[in-house]
Design brief:
InterPro entries: DUF3052. The protein has about 140 residues and is α/β, with parallel strands linked by helices. Helix content is about 25%, strand content about 25%. Strand 2, helix 3 and strand 3 form a beta-alpha-beta unit.
Length: about 140
């Protein structure tokens, strides 16, 4: 693993598969988020992240999520709304041992209920791990 610093943040947006000029919405911002991750994504897309009140169609949702943030299924259902057909949701959770850590099994249980599929995970920064979610190809319509 690359330590935060040298190439740690420079490649975060690329690691997350965020294309240049992508429209990225951020949900769940709080004082504990990693501003270097946010800056790397903004640099990659060439604009600021959209806030959770935006109603634009987005390519990527960055969802900062902590154990005490409530019902993950509800939050994922809300995040799906503005997502483009081939869009991606990255659920960013504190790593093991950090305040607010979310068990991977909690994410795995919430994902299919929200009508999504989990494809991969990646370490992003020193305190956060990202879980990549997409709409399954077999699901053609949403309720």
């Amino acid at each position: 693993m690359v330590a935060a610093g040298d190439a740690g943040y420079a490649g975060v947006a690329e690691k997350l598969g965020i294309a240049e000029d992508a429209v990225v919405q951020e949900i769940g911002w709080d004082e504990d988020v990693d501003d270097e991750i946010r800056a790397a994504v903004e640099e990659r897309i060439g604009s600021e992240l959209l806030d959770e009140d935006s109603d634009d169609v987005v390519d990527v949702v960055l969802m900062w999520w902590r154990e005490e943030d409530g019902d993950l299924v509800d939050a994922l259902m809300d995040a799906i709304g503005p997502l483009a057909d081939n869009g991606v949701i990255w659920v960013l959770t504190p790593k093991t041992g950090r305040p607010g850590h979310v068990e991977p099994s909690d994410i795995a249980e919430a994902v299919p209920t929200a009508g999504l599929a989990q494809t991969s995970s990646a370490s992003v920064g020193s305190d956060w791990i990202g879980t990549r979610l997409v709409s399954p190809k077999s699901v053609k319509s949403k309720r």
